[in-house]
Amino acid sequence: MTRRAAVFLYAFAGWTVFVWVVFIRNIAKDHTHTTGFKVVHIILAVISIAFAAGCFAVVGRVRRRGEVGRGDRRVPETSAQDG
Question: Each residue of 8-20: pLDDT tens digit?
């Protein structure tokens, strides 16, 4: 995985968490929404945040192994010293 792809996925996951945390905080303070609305959106938030955490974990694991995807096969990432 390239660094650019990893940064994009980290940003995407981070933005997802940010949006849902702000949204849940706002609807928790708002008394115009029904309990059902709040429950459904809290469940959606938990699922989305779990996907974001999974994204962080997968990207981190791939980056730590130093693998770069090229098509369907994976090859070790080379450093600048390797030529």
Answer: 999 999 999 999 9
